[in-house]
């Protein structure tokens, strides 16, 4: 029997000594002893079974989640693969569109490798060179560069270094053989040590590092191989001859294809890069004055982010310019560039352009940084001269860039703007002297004064750039700039126009507040031209005072 007291059910055991009840929290027992109802509640140990069931459920749920996640990744794999392929294709397309010469260079390398592979494919040629034909393939891989100068530099360095190292290796082997079998390896080891150490040390010289570093490296490699292998190889002369011949064939193939098939000249790239850098500086300077002095009135221009930032690429252009100049020295005369073109002078112009770019980088931080706390009154006093300095410097650099592109002497066109910028610089000095700064707030005028000081340095730097470009035009024999003479009609002498001046009487009390000009003589009106001019203009009488408005 059982007694139900919800939510607990009581079960009467057959021996009437134990009552059991079942609740929501498990099964409990009620023990009956004699006539006394001593009730003891004991919870059965069913937690173990419950936790086991819960563990099974959680494990199943984890497996289901893992399976669902894996299946989701598998389903998303085609879409991700498609997006990756599309992104890669767009990157390849953009890379080719930015410079189509890259695609041409890749095709030229493939053509060169195909040609030198004939040393292996053609049986008659293979019988003559044997396994040494592989050196031609390796030569093409390591010496074919993007520019003609780079290819010529590596090919000639590799060829001369191989020839010199091979000859010295043969000499070292013959010299070591004079000491007998026991002394030969010792002498060879000493010679390899001395020449390798000396050649490695020579790589630290800046001139050798810049132009012949690859050749020195090949010299060390070839000399070591020839000298060491000569101890075991009997036909050392044949081995050296085969290697030198295959390297010459590989290098000649690279040079021929690089020059004849869509050549990329390092000198031309350097010339265009310097002209482009000058244009970037000019673009910034021409618009700086208006942006800086109007930054407090124009929203969104305070940070200078929307202003042209092309000059930033000039800051780190030193290594690329030096590399192009080094390769250009190896190139033959081409186009408008002669054999001994003054490529070194381009580095001087590039260094001055970077100096100007660093000044611009400093002045760029002033855009919008002081329009809140700066002195607008002081900025107004120097606005005109600073704007003229910036604009004239920009015009100077633009004229220099144009002259470099056309390879004409820029002196006549750029010199005018240089003089104008120097005149504006003098005006700035006069404006600073005229400004009363005794009681001025130093913190308020300091930003604008800094801008003026940097602009003065930029004017000096632009003048140096103009002189350097003019010197380059003289060394490279640029064409003289042709300026077409403009004939303007002769203008009649201009007299004071009616309405600009007003006669002032001697007794006029307001004359003290005006500028007074006294005319002591007038132009004769006897001639017809002067008479016509007098009819159109008012001529004051002698001794009469006039007021300039």
The count of helical stretches stands at 17
- Please describe the biggest sheet, giving its number of strands, its sense, and whether it closes into a barrel: 4 strands, antiparallel
Helix content: 55-70%
Report the end-to-end length measured between terminal Cα atoms.
Answer: 127 Å
Low-confidence stretches: 1-45, 296-305, 486-516, 518-549
Write the H/E string, N to C: EEEEHHHHHHHHHHHHHHHHEEHE
Number of structurally distinct domains: 5
- Strand element count: 7
GO cellular component, one term: membrane
Family: Belongs to the aromatic acid exporter (TC 2.A.85) family.
Pfam families: ALMT
Region (Disordered): 527-549
Architecture overview:
Helix content is 64%, strand content 6%. It is built from 17 helices and 7 strands. The strands form 2 sheets. The protein has a 4-stranded antiparallel beta sheet with strand order 1-2-3-4, with no helix packed on it. A 3-stranded antiparallel beta sheet has the order 5-7-6, with no helix packed on it. The radius of gyration is 45 Å and the shape is extended. The chain crosses the membrane at residues 103-122, 128-148, 160-180, 186-205, 212-232, 244-266.
């Amino acid at each position: 029997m059982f007694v139900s007291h919800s939510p607990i059910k009581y079960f009467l055991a057959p021996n009437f000594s134990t009552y059991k009840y079942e609740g929501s929290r498990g099964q409990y027992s009620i023990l009956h002893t004699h006539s006394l109802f001593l009730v003891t509640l004991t919870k059965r140990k069913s937690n173990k079974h419950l936790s086991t069931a819960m563990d099974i459920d959680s494990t199943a749920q984890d497996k289901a989640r893992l399976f669902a996640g894996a299946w989701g990744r598998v389903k998303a794999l085609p879409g991700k693969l498609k997006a990756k392929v599309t992104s890669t294709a767009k990157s390849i397309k953009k890379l080719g569109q930015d410079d189509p010469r890259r695609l041409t260079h890749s095709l030229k390398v493939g053509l060169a490798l195909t040609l030198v592979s004939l040393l292996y494919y053609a049986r008659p040629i293979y019988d003559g060179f044997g396994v040494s034909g592989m050196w031609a393939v390796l030569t093409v891989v390591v010496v074919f560069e993007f520019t003609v100068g780079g290819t010529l530099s590596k090919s000639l360095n590799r060829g001369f270094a191989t020839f010199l190292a091979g000859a010295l290796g043969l000499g070292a082997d013959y010299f070591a053989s004079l000491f007998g079998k026991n002394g030969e390896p010792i002498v060879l080891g000493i010679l390899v040590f001395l020449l390798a150490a000396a050649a490695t040390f020579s790589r630290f010289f800046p001139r050798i590092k810049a132009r012949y570093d690859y050749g020195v490296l090949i010299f060390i490699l070839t000399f070591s191989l020839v000298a060491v292998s000569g101890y075991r190889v009997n036909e050392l002369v044949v081995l050296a001859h085969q290697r030198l011949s295959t390297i010459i064939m590989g290098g000649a193939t690279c040079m021929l294809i690089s020059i004849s098939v869509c050549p990329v000249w390092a000198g031309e790239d350097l010339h265009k890069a310097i002209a482009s850098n000058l244009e970037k500086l000019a673009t910034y300077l021409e618009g700086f004055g208006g942006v800086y002095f109007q930054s407090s009135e124009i929203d969104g221009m305070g940070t200078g982010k929307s202003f042209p930032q092309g000059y930033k690429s000039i800051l780190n252009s030193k290594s690329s310019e030096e590399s192009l100049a080094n390769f250009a020295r190896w190139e033959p005369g081409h186009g408008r560039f002669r054999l001994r073109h003054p490529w070194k002078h381009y580095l001087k112009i590039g260094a001055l352009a970077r100096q100007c770019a660093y000044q611009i980088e400093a002045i760029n931080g002033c855009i919008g940084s002081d329009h809140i706390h700066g002195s607008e009154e002081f900025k107004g006093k120097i606005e005109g001269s600073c704007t003229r300095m910036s604009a004239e410097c920009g015009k100077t650099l633009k004229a220099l860039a144009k002259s470099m592109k056309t390879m004409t002497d820029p002196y006549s066109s750029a010199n005018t703007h240089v003089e104008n910028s120097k005149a504006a610089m003098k005006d700035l000095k006069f404006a600073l002297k005229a400004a009363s700064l005794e009681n001025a707030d130093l913190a308020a005028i300091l930003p604008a004064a800094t801008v003026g000081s940097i602009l003065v340095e930029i004017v000096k730097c632009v003048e140096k750039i103009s002189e350097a470009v003019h010197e380059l035009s003289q060394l490279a024999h640029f064409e003289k700039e042709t300026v077409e003479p403009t004939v303007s009609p002769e203008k009649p002498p201009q007299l004071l126009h009616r309405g600009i001046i007003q006669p002032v009487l001697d007794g006029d009390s307001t004359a003290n507040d005006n500028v007074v000009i006294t005319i002591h003589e007038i132009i004769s009106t006897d001639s017809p031209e002067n008479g016509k001019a007098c009819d159109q203009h008012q001529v004051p009488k002698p001794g009469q005072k006039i007021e300039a408005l």
